[in-house]
Amino acid sequence: MSENSSIRFQTNIYKLKHLVGMHYLKIPEKIVKKLGGKFSMRLLCTVNGSVTFQCGLIALGNGDAYISMNATRMKQLNVTFGSKVIVELKKDESTYGMQVPEELSELLAQDTQGFKRFKNLPPGKQRYIIHYVSMVKSTQLRIDRAILLIENLKKLPVGKESFKEMLGKG
């Protein structure tokens, strides 16, 4: 898949058996192969030409993959289990594969040691921090979470950065 190209295809909305209430878009093996055959890449997914979000592929088995669909997106798209949808996938060229909340971005701009430690984390741990800070509506709570995680990260030995320790629950 070239840098600016995208892949369009039709699929259905399915339910995950092991997670109650979770729906997904099935990505057939032939599409996974067109994307490079890897599950480690970050993507921009557009559904029915109207809702775009950042995501990654999760292995489903037999070479197929899936992309999670939360209730908010399902409602925005006015789709339900079994609905046919048109999916467009494009490589996500953003730095972290997801939107960084302003509060975390500002903290990392001011804290060079914290930024250095954050930058050296594996991408999944970076996204965990971004997601954990992003998932609350309150600006003050996002600030508090960003400070908690980055301050605890700076105290941990390099290579021993666990989520539990970053949360101060170790």
Describe the structure.
Helix 3 packs across helix 4 and helix 4 crosses helix 6. It contains seven helices and seven strands. The chain folds into two domains: 6-91, AF2212/PG0164-like (Elongation Factor Tu (Ef-tu), domain 3, Beta Barrel), CATH 2.40.30; 102-166, no CATH class. Helices cover 37% and strands 26% of the residues. It starts with 5 loop residues before the first strand and ends with a helix. The chain has a seven-stranded antiparallel beta sheet. The chain is α+β, with helices and mostly antiparallel strands and 170 residues long.
Tally the structural domains: 2
Number of strands: 7
User: What value does the average pLDDT take?
Assistant: 89
Give the overall form. elongated
CATH superfamily of the largest domain: AF2212/PG0164-like
Please give the count of helices: 7
Structural class: alpha+beta
Percent strand: 25-35%
Question: According to CATH, what is the class of the largest domain?
Answer: Mainly Beta
Provide the gyration radius in Å: 18 Å
List the helices and strands and how they pair.
Blueprint: E1 6-15, E2 23-27, H1 29-34, E3 42-47, E4 51-56, E5 58-61, E6 64-69, H2 71-77, E7 84-91, H3 102-110, H4 112-119, H5 123-134, H6 139-155, H7 163-166
Antiparallel strand pairs: 1-2, 1-7, 2-6, 3-4, 3-7, 5-6
